[in-house]
Design brief:
alpha/beta; five-stranded parallel sheet; 190 residues; four-stranded mixed sheet; 7 helices
């Protein structure tokens, strides 16, 4: 496994990382393909298996862990696992593309540590925790308890920001998108 560039976008839920990643995927000159993560949870809202995530059972997820099929994985919440299958990265590299990730902070840092020279690790910082909470409520995809869990986790995630190669402050989405595009363009051009 040593073929292309890896671009990691991590942030607390509600920071705008998914919107930024989708924007970058629309830029053909970057030659990006989205790394679809595996998740042991059920789909939310409009999410689709094989497009947004590979939705697999908790039992199946644990079998993949035991078989060492993951590049990285994390139990994000109790019995709620997310991870990147090695086969997914190999699939994208076989297409001759660079891999872009929209993943948990811990997973993003694991990829950076495994492939330090091939990885650009970007942390998307929200304007405030209050703004995060507002964005999560606006989505209307989760219960108040889940939102409160995400907010509690956000302060821990925000503390990891200095471990990333760069931080994009998402105070204005258009500015953040442009900054992300330039960062990725410069990185994939090396």
């Amino acid at each position: 496994m040593n073929k292309g560039k890896l671009i990691v976008f991590s942030a607390p839920s509600g920071s705008g990382k998914t919107t930024i990643v989708r924007h970058l995927l629309g830029k053909e000159d970057l030659n990006l393909e989205f790394s679809i993560s595996a998740a042991s949870r059920d789909p939310r809202g409009e999410e689709e298996h094989g497009k947004d995530y590979y939705f697999i059972s908790l039992e199946e997820f644990k079998k993949h862990i035991k078989a060492e099929n993951f590049l990285e994985w994390e139990e994000v919440y109790r019995d709620n696992f997310y991870g990147t299958l090695k086969a997914e990265i190999e699939r994208i590299w076989a297409l001759g593309k660079n891999v872009i990730f929209d993943i948990d902070v811990a997973g993003g840092l694991r990829i950076k540590h495994k492939f330090p020279d091939q990885t650009l690790a970007v942390f998307v910082k929200p304007p405030s925790v209050d703004e995060l909470k507002r964005r999560l409520k606006e989505r209307s995809t989760e219960t108040d308890d889940k939102i409160n869990m995400r907010i509690a986790k956000a302060s821990v995630e925000l503390a990891t920001a200095p471990q990333f190669d760069t931080i994009i402050k998402n105070y204005d989405l258009d500015t953040a998108k442009q900054e992300a595009y330039q960062l990725v363009k410069d990185f994939v051009s090396k």
